[in-house]
Write a structure and sequence with these properties.
This protein is of the alpha/beta class and 214 residues long. It is 57% helix and 12% strand. It has helices at 2-35, 59-70, 77-84, 92-111, 125-138, 151-163, 175-182, 201-212; strands at residues 47-52, 73-76, 116-119, 141-148, 193-196.
């Protein structure tokens, strides 16, 4: 009898934790959604433009260049992190929560017919698979763009970024972070576009927009 009661208690506790997490997630999503400057206009088939790349590879710059053409909402993990955690610690649990909130918000916006540009490193395939499933579930067009740049260029960008007070820059990543993350990057198994952000960025933007609109 005790074992049955213990099992029921364990199930009840698990359900309570799950309910508490869902409530916290909904609150965090609402907080970030209220923080967004522009949620874009609904479309018949929204686009999920997923960026992937190391710090300093040009993701945020490319996102800002693409945003007006797609009337899309930019969801940036660095920005979300600083809203949720004014003094971020970059722990595993913190990272997991930031991505969980981003994924939930992306799913919500896409379900409303709103296009999204997800500006994040997105280096691990199993985490990218979450976004693949979100796009499939919401009927969104998934476009994946991997940004790259020569290492010496990335080093200069990261150094310059650390010395400037750019209001559009929400990243705290430095060269040490770049070197650490470089070891974790996994190949993208879905069809994707590779953009070297030191090359003709206008041509790359035109190519991406053409794919988004077909």
């Amino acid at each position: 009898m005790d074992s049955v009661e213990n099992k029921q208690q364990t199930i009840a506790e698990r359900e309570a934790r799950s309910a508490a997490r869902r409530a916290a997630l909904a609150t965090a999503v609402a907080q970030i959604e209220a923080h967004l400057p522009d949620v874009g206009e609904p479309t018949a088939r929204p686009v999920l433009l997923m960026l992937s790349g190391l710090p300093g590879s040009g993701k945020s710059y490319l996102a800002r260049r693409l945003q007006p053409h797609l009337s899309a909402t930019i969801i940036e993990t660095d920005d979300v992190r600083h809203v949720l955690f004014p003094q971020p610690r970059y722990t595993g649990a913190e990272n997991a929560w930031v991505y969980a909130v981003c994924h939930a918000l992306i799913a919500r916006l896409l379900a409303q017919g709103r296009s999204v540009i997800f500006d994040a490193t997105n280096l691990i395939e199993r985490k990218r698979e979450i976004l693949y499933h979100i796009a499939e579930r919401t009927g969104a067009k998934l476009v994946i763009v991997r940004t790259v740049a020569p290492e010496d260029v990335i080093e200069r960008r990261l150094l310059t970024r650390s010395q400037q007070n750019d209001p559009d820059n929400h990243s705290d990543a430095n060269l040490a972070v770049y070197m650490k993350l470089r070891q974790t990057e996994e190949p993208i198994r879905r069809q994707h576009i590779v953009v070297d952000t030191t090359q003709d960025i206008d041509a790359a933007i035109h190519r991406i927009l053409r794919i988004c609109r077909t």
